[in-house]
Design a protein that fits this description.
By secondary structure, the protein is an alpha+beta fold. About 25% of the residues lie in helices and about 20% in strands. It has eight helices and 15 strands. Strands 1, 2, 7, 8, 9, 10, 11, 12 and 15 form a nine-stranded antiparallel β-sheet that branches. Strands 3-4 form a two-stranded antiparallel ribbon. Strands 5-6 form a two-stranded antiparallel sheet. Helix 5 runs antiparallel to helix 7.
Amino acid sequence: MKKIIIITIIFICMVGCGIALFSQGRGSASDEISLKAEKTEAKIKINKDGKDIVSRFSVPDGFIRVEYDKDSFAEYLRHYPLKKIGSPVKLYDGRKKSNQVHVSVFDMPLLKEDLIQCADAVIKLRAEYLYAQKRYDEISFHITNGMEVPFSRYAKGERVIVKGNNTSWKSGYKEGYDRDVFESYLKFIYMYAGTYSLSVESQKAAIFKLEPGNFFIYGGSPGHVVLVLDVAENPVTKKKIMLLGQSYMPSQEFHVLKSFEDISPWYYVNDEPLFTPEWHFERGSLKKF
């Protein structure tokens, strides 16, 4: 299990509420969703030779992909390499995930530890995008106790020291923007961040203005997050659809989700609760970095 810093009674209460809400959101309803997702699998439109989302998944009739800047996070996600079609989702220890609810798997390596779970995978994708563009000063995330941890301080040779519930900076470590420093930074974030911290530090997003890189999130313990990977729109009705991706617990490969819609794996964008194969999100759960 990941280490989680808990420093207030308020947060403990929030965690308890999260468990209760999660229980109400699962059970037979979740089982029914999974069955619907299985039944619509035959309707998935895919190009088996496609190497990324854009080349593998066509849009339903009447829809066109929304255009974004070529250097945007949206385009980064759309063109992230996918594993060969039919690849199973694997856990960090090499075992297959028991609940295979995906249509494709991101070619994004895991650590051999149970660290890169749902929020961590979203954080990793965002951080990797910024790192690839050398926007180092924008790489910054909060951990569960509220402390902000910018990558720029790691690059200056500083590291966060954790003693019980207390955190502090200490200098004297390796400096620079090299990959090993970046990986050390990310591993620390994986250990001490999660859905709660990601939910707190993110901003509300408007459902009908959503774009790839936004995410639906419930911050708790357990909590969950799914990432918007692609968006298409009907130019006449302005109706939008989206593709969603997730990691989960235990640490597992990031994957593009099936949906139980008649246009699976696409989801209709509606201002109402969102049902995915392994979680449902209440109305108003959409956020952005």
